[in-house]
Amino acid sequence: MLALSHHVKIGIATVFAAAACYSFAAEPDVTVPPQARPFMLTMPRPTYPVEARAQHITGRGVYDVYINPPTGVVTRVTVVQSTGSKILDDAAANAFRRWRAQPGKLSRLRVPCNFWLTR
């Protein structure tokens, strides 16, 4: 039998754990109100945090995205309904802070976001 050092065994276990984590499809589902879509310039989707995927954390949250009308820049994101996970709420809020709207068009959006895993 092949003798492996403790560090090599840990490295191999880490690789297998990471591979198992990525075997789940993870694409957060964000629903932007249809009437607001034409006014949005950029809407990057939240990324599913690796830590949350590894722990199979899922959830549905609702967020208020506040926009400065003269500039179209998001000034604040608040959690209206938490996903139940700070990791997922932070991922959603971080993505929504990067959103941009056409100046003068919007001041607030209520955005639901679902984090789910499928095989």
Can you tag this structure with a few keywords?
3 helices, 119 residues, two-stranded antiparallel sheet, alpha+beta, 32% strand, four-stranded antiparallel sheet, TolA/TonB C-terminal domain, elongated
Description:
The strands form three sheets. The protein has a four-stranded antiparallel sheet with strand order 2-7-4-5, with helices on one face. A two-stranded antiparallel sheet has the order 1-8. It has a two-stranded antiparallel ribbon with strand order 3-6. The chain is 28% helix and 32% strand. The protein has 119 residues and is of the alpha+beta class. The chain has three helices and eight strands. The relative contact order is 0.25. It has a single domain, classed as TonB (TolA/TonB C-terminal domain, 2-Layer Sandwich), CATH 3.30.2420.10. The protein starts with 5 loop residues before the first helix and ends with a strand.
The biggest beta sheet reads: 4 strands, antiparallel
Q: At CATH's second level, what is the architecture?
A: 2-Layer Sandwich
Largest sheet, spatial ordering of strands: 2-7-4-5
Low-confidence stretches: 6-23
Rg from Cα: 19 Å
Indicate the structural class. Answer: alpha+beta
**Percentage of helical residues?**
25-40%
What's the CATH class label?
Answer: Alpha Beta
Mean pLDDT across every amino acid position: 84
Number of separate strands: 8
Q: Enumerate how many helices there are, as a single number.
A: 3
User: CATH homologous superfamily name?
Assistant: TonB
Compute the number of structural domains.
Answer: 1
